[in-house]
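User: Sequence recovery, please. Input:
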C-alpha cells in the first residue's frame, strides 16, 4: 500500500506532523510505503529524517514568506507542479493532505487519476469564511475541496470548538467522516518529568514565535517580569523575534529576561525541565486563536511545568486546574500586577496531576484508517 502525504510548508515547523510520522515508523508494516511532499525549512531548523526506510521525504522548493507576489506565486507553482509530476508515477492508494494550501495536487489526483484512492484531510488551523475569501489562491482551493468533502474518508480538526465552527461554515454538520485529532507530544516526553518543587526565583519560559505585539501579550509579560524585581526570570526560545520586540527588550534593560535561539523540537524536554512555568501569550485576536489549545500547552504539561495563559483563549478553559501539580491557570494579562506570585504557585493539594496527552494515543484512529484496507 502506498500513502502520499502533502504538507505545503516545511514539516520541521509543524511538530505534530513529525510526531505522526514517528508513530508511523513503529506501527506500519513492511508493505506500507509513505511519501511526504513538503518543502525545505528555513535556516536554523534541523531536517527531519525518518528512521524507517519506507517513509520518504521529498522536498520541493522553499516556502519562505515574501511580500513579492511574483516570488510567492512562483513558490506555489514549483511545489504544486513538482509534487504533481512525482505523484503521478507513485500510484497511491491513499492521499492525505494538511491544510487548504496543500489541497490542489491531492484533489486533482483524486478527481482525475486515482478515483479509488481514499482521501484524508487534516487542518492545523481554523479559518473563517471571510478569512478564506481574503486568501485568493487559498479560497480557490477551498471551493475545490468543499465539493469533495462528502467523498473524503477522514476530515479532522485539532479540537471540537474548531470542528463545530468549520462544520457550520460548510453546512457539513451531517458529515460522518469528521474527527478530532489533537496536537499532543510523544509519550516518552512525560516519563521522567514529575516536579515536586519550584525554584526561587520562579523560572518562566516561552517557546515559539515572538513576532508581534498585536497578537501576543509580549510587552505586558516583559514589563511584569521587570517590575517583580527578581522574583521571576523569563527565558524566550524563539525562531522569530521581530525587530520591534527585540528593540523593546533592549530598551527594557532587564537582566531577568534572556533571549535564546530556536530549539530542535525533540530537544525540548531536556530544556523545559529546567523551568517552573510555561507561558502561552496569544491575545485571541481571531477565532482560530480564541479557540486554540496550542501544542505548547501539552508540551509544557508533559514536561512537568505549570501553564499560565490569557483568559481570552477559550480553547484552553476546559483544561483549567488550580489544584495539585502542573496547574493550568487562566490569567488576565492586561492586569498582571494584581497577581501575587506566591498565590499563583501555591499548591492546594499534593495530588499528582495525571497527564495523558500523547500523540500515540491521539493518532490511534487515524492510523487504523490509514494502515488498513
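Assistant: Recovered sequence (373 residues):
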Amino acid at each position: 500500500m502506498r500513502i502520499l502525504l502533502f504538507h505545503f510548508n516545511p514539516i520541521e515547523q509543524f511538530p505534530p506532523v513529525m510526531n505522526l510520522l514517528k508513530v508511523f515508523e513503529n506501527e506500519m508494516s513492511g508493505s506500507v510505503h509513505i511519501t511526504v511532499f513538503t518543502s525545505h525549512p528555513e535556516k536554523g531548523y534541523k531536517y527531519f529524517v525518518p528512521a524507517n526506510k519506507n517513509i520518504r521525504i521529498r522536498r520541493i522548493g522553499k516556502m519562505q514568506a515574501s511580500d513579492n507576489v511574483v516570488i510567492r506565486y512562483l513558490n506555489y507553482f514549483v511545489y504544486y507542479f513538482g509534487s504533481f509530476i512525482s505523484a503521478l508515477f507513485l500510484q497511491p492508494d491513499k492521499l492525505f493532505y494538511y491544510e487548504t494550501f496543500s489541497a490542489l495536487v491531492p484533489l486533482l489526483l483524486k478527481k482525475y487519476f486515482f478515483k479509488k484512492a481514499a482521501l484524508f484531510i487534516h487542518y492545523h488551523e481554523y479559518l473563517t469564511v471571510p478569512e478564506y475569501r481574503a486568501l485568493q489562491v487559498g479560497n480557490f482551493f477551498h471551493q475545490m475541496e468543499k465539493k469533495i468533502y462528502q467523498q473524503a474518508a477522514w476530515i479532522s480538526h485539532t479540537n471540537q470548538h474548531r470542528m463545530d465552527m468549520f462544520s457550520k461554515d460548510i453546512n457539513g454538520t451531517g458529515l460522518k467522516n469528521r474527527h478530532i485529532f489533537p496536537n499532543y507530544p510523544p509519550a516518552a516526553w512525560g516519563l521522567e518529568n514529575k516536579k515536586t518543587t519550584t525554584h526561587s526565583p520562579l523560572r518562566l519560559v516561552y517557546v515559539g514565535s515572538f513576532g508581534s505585539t498585536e497578537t501576543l501579550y509580549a510587552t505586558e509579560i516583559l514589563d511584569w517580569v521587570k517590575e517583580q524585581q527578581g522574583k521571576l526570570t523569563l527565558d524566550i526560545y524563539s525562531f522569530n523575534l521581530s525587530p520591534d520586540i527585540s528593540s523593546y527588550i533592549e530598551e527594557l534593560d532587564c537582566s531577568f529576561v534572556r533571549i535564546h535561539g530556536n530549539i530542535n523540537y525533540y530537544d525540548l524536554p531536556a530544556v523545559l525541565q529546567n523551568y517552573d512555568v510555561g507561558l502561552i501569550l496569544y491575545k485571541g485576536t481571531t477565532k482560530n486563536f480564541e479557540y486554540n489549545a496550542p501544542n505548547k500547552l501539552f508540551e509544557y504539561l508533559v514536561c512537568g511545568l505549570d501553564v499560565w495563559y490569557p483568559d481570552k483563549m477559550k480553547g484552553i478553559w476546559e483544561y483549567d486546574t488550580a489544584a495539585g501539580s502542573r496547574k493550568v491557570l487562566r490569567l488576565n494579562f492586561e492586569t498582571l500586577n494584581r497577581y501575587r506570585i506566591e498565590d499563583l504557585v501555591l499548591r492546594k493539594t499534593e495530588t499528582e496531576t495525571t497527564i495523558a496527552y500523547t500523540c500515540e494515543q491521539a493518532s490511534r484512529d487515524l492510523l487504523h484508517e490509514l494502515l488498513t484496507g
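The chain has a mean pLDDT of 90.
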